[in-house]
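USER: Please consider what follows.
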Amino acid sequence: MKVYSSLKTKKIRDAGCKIVRRKGRVYVINKKNPKMKARQG
């Protein structure tokens, strides 16, 4: 999982991408394509 300063562009890579907040961090997750993960913070 890569760490990025901005997740806006990562979210629009795929229609299944969602932004989730967990433990003070922001994640991009994708259930259809689990490889597409990113983290901020």
